[in-house]
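Regression test case RT-17, inverse folding.

Input:
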């Protein structure tokens, strides 16, 4: 099928041509690749440390998957009606105000994509070091190399980059299935309900913070929304990719975490922090098997970094198309990705990989993404009231309960996280303020005055 070529609606400065190259398979695999990354192999170590119970860890993953699904069902209506690149940036500027969309886009650049790029690359380096031996390779240089190579692939050729991404993402699914099937045959499932010295409750602040950690692992459920302007038949394919991808990954996550938390006693796994996947693999398969699986996990993380560098720059590109002062970020040659936007995200990812700790990145990313995801889902109600005649090729299944459940769970986790992790709130707040200042600059007239 010949790709459909469209000019993106926007100001006179918009001159680039957007081509609808991606089909359902690419959009679906992009969701999977974006979701299945660092979190599934690392988050449960922190959860076991804070919750104390393997069963509660699985419950957090189940609730997080349900929240992601309600979010995907809600986003599906919005993106089917407004199919353009940019994700929350495009949605929130239309639903609320251009400043809200801009701050969301700015925050997405840092918290939504640069930080996860860094976190995934760090995890890649850690698992590669486990696979090859710490004396063979240093994790940080490996992380930086992955970011740079992935950025080059997606900047150089959109078609080739998406093809490579599809192959690696499909391989990741196979990896997870093999990982789970082999691990569960050796795991001790009686450990799931083993008594613990101290256990949190599902209503505790620790459980809410756990949901924020898990929201990071599920954060790619809206990935197809960022490239909706390049998906063929977006009114049909984007909702399918969002919903099917979220259901598939939730199922895989539950299987993976059942294997992880029953690989060894909780006290042992809780001490592993972000290396729980490697520790569980060694416990289940021995030193050689563990190193092999750590290598396979590292390969899977390659597609995560690629997916982030494929989706995130579309937001920055859209911001450049709408704001002349940022026009350099929207430059793109035919057949290539938005090179300046990709370079910007890759550069920030490298800086964060060198300066931030993994635990801090998790809390910061989860909180920032939760706020703007909640605003977007609330937009389903806003647009139905304000624009009842807007063409909606897809209507949210279970409306209004579906978006209300998402908003309730997300708000609960945000409020308790603000109380439990003030440093994450400070980081998210500082990013939002910086975004507002950037908006004032980007929209200021030649005389220096910003529009009212």
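Golden output:
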């Amino acid at each position: 099928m010949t790709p459909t070529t469209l000019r993106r609606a926007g100001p006179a400065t918009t001159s680039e041509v957007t081509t609808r190259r991606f089909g359902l398979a690419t959009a679906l695999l992009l969701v999977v690749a974006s979701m299945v990354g660092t979190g599934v192999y690392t988050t449960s170590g922190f959860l076991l440390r804070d919750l104390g119970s393997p069963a509660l860890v699985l419950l957090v993953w189940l609730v997080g998957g349900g929240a992601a699904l309600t979010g995907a069902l809600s986003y599906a209506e919005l993106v089917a009606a407004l199919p353009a690149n940019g994700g929350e940036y495009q949605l929130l500027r239309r639903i609320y105000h251009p400043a809200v969309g801009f701050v969301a886009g700015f925050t997405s650049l840092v918290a939504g994509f640069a930080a996860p790029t860094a976190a995934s690359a760090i995890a890649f380096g850690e698992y590669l070091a486990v696979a090859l031996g710490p004396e063979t390779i240093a994790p940080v240089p490996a992380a930086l190399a992955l970011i740079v190579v992935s950025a080059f692939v997606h900047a150089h050729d959109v078609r080739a980059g998406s093809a490579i991404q599809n192959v690696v993402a499909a391989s990741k699914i196979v990896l997870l299935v093999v990982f789970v099937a082999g691990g569960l045959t050796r795991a001790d499932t009686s450990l799931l309900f083993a008594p613990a010295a101290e256990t949190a409750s599902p209503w505790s602040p620790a459980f809410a913070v756990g949901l924020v950690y898990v929201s990071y692992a599920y954060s790619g459920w809206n990935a197809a929304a960022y490239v909706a302007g390049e998906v063929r038949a977006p009114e049909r394919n984007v909702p399918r990719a969002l919903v099917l991808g979220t259901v598939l990954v939730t199922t895989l996550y539950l299987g993976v975490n059942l294997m992880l938390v029953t690989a060894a006693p909780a006290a042992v796994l809780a001490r592993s922090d972000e290396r729980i996947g490697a520790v569980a693999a060694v416990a289940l398969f021995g030193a050689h098997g563990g190193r092999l699986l750590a290598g396979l996990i590292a390969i899977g993380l390659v597609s995560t970094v690629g997916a982030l560098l494929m989706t995130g720059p579309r937001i920055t590109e859209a911001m450049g198309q709408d704001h002349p002062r940022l026009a350099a970020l929207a430059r793109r040659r035919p057949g290539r990705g938005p090179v300046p936007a990709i370079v910007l995200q890759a550069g920030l990812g490298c800086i964060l990989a060198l300066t931030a700790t993994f635990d801090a990145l998790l809390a910061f990313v989860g909180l920032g993404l939760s706020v703007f995801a909640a605003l977007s889902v609330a937009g389903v109600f806003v647009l139905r009231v304000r624009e009842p005649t807007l063409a909606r090729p897809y209507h949210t299944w279970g409306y209004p309960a579906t978006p209300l459940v998402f908003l309730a769970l997300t708000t609960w986790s945000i409020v308790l996280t603000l109380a439990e992790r003030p440093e994450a709130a400070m980081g998210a707040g500082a990013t939002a303020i910086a975004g507002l200042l950037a908006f004032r600059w980007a929209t200021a007239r030649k005389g220096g005055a910003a529009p009212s």
